[in-house]
From TrEMBL:
One of its GO terms (molecular function) is ribonuclease P RNA binding. One of its GO terms (cellular component) is nucleus. Gene3D superfamilies: Ribonuclease P/MRP, subunit p29 (2.30.30.210). Belongs to the eukaryotic/archaeal RNase P protein component 1 family. It is found in: Nucleus. It comes from the Eukaryota. It comes from Scleroderma citrinum Foug A. Residues 68-89 are annotated as: Disordered. This is Uncharacterized protein.
Length: 280
């Protein structure tokens, strides 16, 4: 077996070994006889060192030392640290701007009355009637009976301001049985007003709520066939007109607070998956 000609003269060249000490000889560098090709050709033991220099060394970048590179882990840590500091600065600026606006959700003590928010609750019932396409009260068609399973996808994204919520179970026994109209929904709590004219802050975490939805539509049918909202009752009307969803036929749904810790705007654009859950 013969060895190819170009492999017969292959030799490993160490470009980083120290210069050979030559006595009584002065190192001269000039454009006519540059140091690099002269030195490389003198250190190679091949028949044609000039061609080897032209093909292997000339015109190429040869690193004389390994540069110190920053590790990928350190680079990621420094980048994350900068992003965290920028985020903290943005939050601090936002808090400084909204410092004087705190308490905007509060209401005056004189208007903390349950009957004043009945119109808001009736408006929410009309909103549910339109959202869930509820049948009119005198409808006898079995096709228009609402299917609770098809209502779940709409209810998890619905706006609950004005709804009537009741705490069925809670890790805090003092909250069980509280019922009121939702005035404000945050990410972690509901702020409601009870029939005793008291504002209650009910946390969502570790609580199970009952949501009542009217069985029939509360919208008045018009001559054109479309439904229009019922007129809002005034304060001079009798108490019989200030009814809630619990005074009429209704459907009852359970809301698990641990799975509901989102703001109203976030729930509207979020995708929920039907999963079985066990609340202990």
């Amino acid at each position: 077996m013969t060895t190819p000609r170009h492999e017969q003269h292959r030799e490993i060249i160490d470009l980083y070994k120290p210069l050979a000490a030559e006595k009584n000889r002065r190192l001269v560098l000039s454009s006519g006889a540059p140091f690099t090709p002269t030195y490389v050709q003198s250190q190679t033991r091949v028949p044609d060192p000039a061609s080897l220099y032209e093909s292997r060394v000339k015109g190429r970048h040869v690193a004389l030392a390994n540069p110190v590179k920053e590790s990928t882990t350190n680079a990621k840590k420094s980048k994350k640290k900068r992003s965290d500091s920028e985020r903290i600065k943005r939050v601090e600026k936002a808090l400084a701007r909204g410092k004087g606006k705190k308490g905007g959700w509060r209401i005056e003590k004189a208007v903390e009355r349950f009957d004043l928010f009945i119109p808001l609750h009736r408006l929410w019932m009309g909103y549910m009637s339109e959202l869930l396409d509820l049948p009119p009260p005198l409808s006898t068609s079995t096709d228009r009976i609402p299917n609770p399973a098809s209502m779940h996808a709409k209810l998890v994204k619905a706006d609950l301001h004005g709804s009537l919520l009741t705490v069925r179970q809670s890790r805090n026994p003092c909250l069980v049985g509280l019922s009121g109209i939702v005035l404000y929904e945050s990410e972690n709590a509901f702020r409601t007003i009870t029939k005793a004219n008291q504002i209650k802050l009910i946390p969502k975490q570790n609580s199970i709520f009952t949501l009542a939805v009217p069985l029939h539509s509360t919208l008045a049918p018009s001559s054109a066939g479309a439904q229009t909202p019922l007129p809002t009752p005034s304060h001079a009307e009798s108490d019989a007109d200030l009814t809630t969803v619990l005074d009429k036929p209704y459907l009852e749904f359970e809301l698990y607070g641990n799975q509901f810790c989102y703001r109203s705007a976030e729930r509207a654009g979020r995708k929920f998956k039907a999963k079985e859950t066990i609340e202990l």
